[in-house]
Amino acid sequence: MHLDLERTSSEFTEAGARLHRLAETVDSSGWSRRAAAGGWSIDECVAHLTLTNERYIPVLVEAIDAAPVMSDPPMPLKQDLAGRMLRWMMEPPVRFKLPTSPSFQPPSSAGRSATLARFESVQARLTDLIREMDGLDVSRVRIASPFNDKLRYSAYSALRIIVAHERRHLWQAERVRDANTRAPK
Fold first, then answer.
1. How far apart are the C-alpha atoms of 105 and 98, rounded to whole Å?
2. In a 10 Å sphere around its CB, with 0-12 CB exposed, 13-18 middle and 19+ buried, how is residue 36 labelled?
3. How many CB atoms within 10 Å of residue 180?
4. Rounded to whole angstroms, what are the CA distances from 19 to 41, 83, 95, 125, 158?
5. What is the b/e burial string over 93-117, where b = at least 16 CB atoms within 10 angstroms of the residue's CB?
6. Model confidence pLDDT, tens digit, residues 108-165
7. Angle of helix 3-23 relative to helix 112-133, nearest 10 degrees?
8. What is the pTM for the complete model shown?
9. Which residues, other chains included, contact 69 with Cβ-Cβ below 8 Å and sequence gap of 6+?
10. What is the dihedral of CA 138, 144, 146, 151, to 10 degrees?
């Protein structure tokens, strides 16, 4: 597999492992409890990631269909400027809040096992898509953002944005856990 895609796939795997480590540190009430200061619960953070990632799947499938074959020898995959900027904005620690449109707002808590299962299913599909991208120059295919169709970046940039977004909300979920652990019950 192309080194850049392999690294990205590894980051998806690490996000899943990080989520499981987090899930093991809280009980059911801690999973669905919001921090006293407000914001989303752990469950809502994970549900938001799943909603977002699901919206990227059909866009990435179309990108695979449109992607040219990679040159030989394979060149490094590059992020475009819009992708680099968005990825930087997503990376934790959170520098500033970004509003979430209503269609990406998490639904009410489905419970830990259902939320984890849905997240894992979507992660597996994204990992499959990364494997399908091997041998294709997905840095040359531009896609429209599921958040704003006027915002365009490469399919490879989209992958880098998704993993940064996962790190952001897993970081947020860990902060919720830590705040709830310190707060009186």
1. 12
2. exposed
3. 19
4. 13, 25, 22, 17, 21
5. eeeeeeeeeeeeebeebbebeebbe
6. 777 889 999 999 999 999 999 999 999 999 999 999 999 888 999 999 999 999 999 9
7. 170
8. 0.92
9. 135, 136, 137
10. 120
